[in-house]
C-alpha cells in the first residue's frame, strides 16, 4: 500500500479504526498501512438523515465509525438498500445503489460512503429539495454516540 497523507487543521478531528483523534495544531498524518478513517467534515448527524439516501449514508457511516458494530449496521443496510432500489426509478440512482451494494459486499465501506455522498445532490434534485442542513457537520461526538448505540 502506498503511504496516505492527510492534513488536519488545529482542532480538527478524525475517526481512525474506531478511535476519535483530535489535533491541537495543524498537522499531517501519514498512514503507512491499511486504515479505516472518516474525516470529521464527512460525519453526518442522525437528525440530518432526513432522506432515504442520507439514511443509507448514516448506516454506512456507522460501519466505519464503530468496527465492533459492523454486523448491526450490515443488517440495517440489508433492509434499507432493497427498499431504496424499489423506491427510485432514476437510472443513475439505481446504478449508484447497485454499485454501493457491490462495494459494501467487498468490504469497501469507505468507497460506498463516497458513492452515496455523490448521489445526495441527485436525490435532492429528484425530491425537489434544497437541504436545510449541510451533509457535513461540525459536532462529532453525538454522531459517534449514535453510531455506538448510546
UniProtKB/TrEMBL annotation:
Keyword terms, alphabetized: Bacterial flagellum biogenesis, Cell projection, Cilium, Flagellum, Repressor, RNA-binding
Keyword Ligase set for record: no
A Pfam family annotated for this UniProt entry: FlbT
HAMAP family, A to Z: FlbT
Function per UniProt: Has a post-transcriptional repressor function in flagellum biogenesis. Associates with the 5'-UTR of fljK mRNA and promotes its degradation.
Family: Belongs to the FlbT family.
Protein name: Probable flagellum biosynthesis repressor protein FlbT
Organism whose genome encodes this protein: Jiella sonneratiae
Lineage: Bacteria, Pseudomonadati, Pseudomonadota, Alphaproteobacteria, Hyphomicrobiales
Amino acid at each position: 500500500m502506498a503511504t496516505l497523507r492527510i492534513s488536519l487543521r488545529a482542532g480538527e478531528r478524525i475517526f481512525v479504526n474506531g478511535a476519535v483523534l483530535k489535533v491541537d495544531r495543524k498537522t499531517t498524518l501519514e498512514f503507512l498501512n491499511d486504515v479505516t478513517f472518516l474525516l470529521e467534515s464527512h460525519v453526518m448527524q442522525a437528525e440530518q438523515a432526513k432522506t432515504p439516501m442520507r439514511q443509507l449514508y448514516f448506516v454506512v457511516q456507522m460501519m466505519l465509525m464503530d468496527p465492533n458494530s459492523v454486523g448491526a449496521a450490515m443488517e440495517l443496510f440489508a433492509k434499507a438498500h432493497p427498499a431504496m432500489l424499489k423506491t427510485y426509478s432514476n437510472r443513475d440512482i439505481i446504478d449508484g445503489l447497485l454499485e454501493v451494494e457491490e462495494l459494501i459486499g467487498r468490504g469497501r465501506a469507505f468507497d460506498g460512503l463516497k458513492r452515496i455522498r455523490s448521489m445526495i445532490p441527485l436525490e435532492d434534485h429528484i425530491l425537489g429539495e434544497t437541504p436545510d442542513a449541510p451533509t457535513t457537520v461540525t459536532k462529532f461526538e453525538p454522531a459517534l454516540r449514535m453510531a455506538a448505540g448510546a
